[in-house]
Amino acid sequence: WRIALAGVGHLGAALLGHTAFQSEKFRMEALFDVDPDKVGREIAGVPCHPFGDMASVLAERKIEVLILSVPASAAQACVDKAVESGTVRGILTFAPTTVVVPEGLLVYSVDISVELEKLLFYLKERDER
Q1: pTM for the complete prediction?
Q2: Nearest CA to 66 among 9, 2, 12, 13?
Q3: Is the pLDDT of residue 20 over 90?
Q4: What pLDDT is stored for residue 119 in this prediction?
Q5: Using 50, 70 and 90 to split pLDDT, how confident is the model at 36?
Q6: Is the dihedral of CA 34, 3, 14, 105 positive or negative?
Q7: What is d(CA 100, CA 103) in angstroms, rounded to the nearest whole number?
Q8: Better pLDDT: 114 or 52
């Protein structure tokens, strides 16, 4: 699987450094950001492109999965660029917002606050037993 990451801030950099991305099953092909200090550089060996080039880079590299670690205000614009590419089939989003996608594009949202609530619920249940 060819994967790209939009948003190379604290969360994006942490995801990029995770051992999960050192798998033979998928490869991080491209990064996207708006920070001029990051754009044009390689970060963890992956080239970082400007947001404006997202659709063309995704298409050129035939990227099928996009990970979003951008602020909520930027999430829909990233999704729109992914759709424009014609190659993205799935999006994993950490952005704390709902995005609108065309039918057939799979979106999986990771809401860290929901995951924390689940953990706290199970801890409380265990303590009450």
Answers
A1: 0.89
A2: 2
A3: no
A4: 93
A5: very high
A6: positive
A7: 10
A8: 52
Taking the CA atoms of residue 97, residue 101, residue 91 and residue 71 in that order, the dihedral angle to the nearest 10 degrees is -30
The answer, yes or no, to whether residue 19 has pLDDT greater than 80, is: no
Residue type, 125: E
Q: Identify any residues that bridge with 42 across adjacent strands, giving them in sequence order.
A: 47
CA angle centred on 85, ends 90 and 102, rounded to 5°: 50
DSSP letters of the chain?
A: -EEEEE--SHHHHHHHTSGGGS-SS-EEEEEEES-TTTTTSEETTEEEEEGGGHHHHHHHTT--EEEE-S-HHHHHHHHHHHHHHS---EEEE-SSS-----TT-EEEE--HHHHHHHHHHHHHHHHH-
Strand partners, 6: 32, 68
Q: Distance between CA 59 and CA 84 in Å, rounded?
A: 9
Backbone angles phi, psi at 113, to 5 degrees: -65, -35
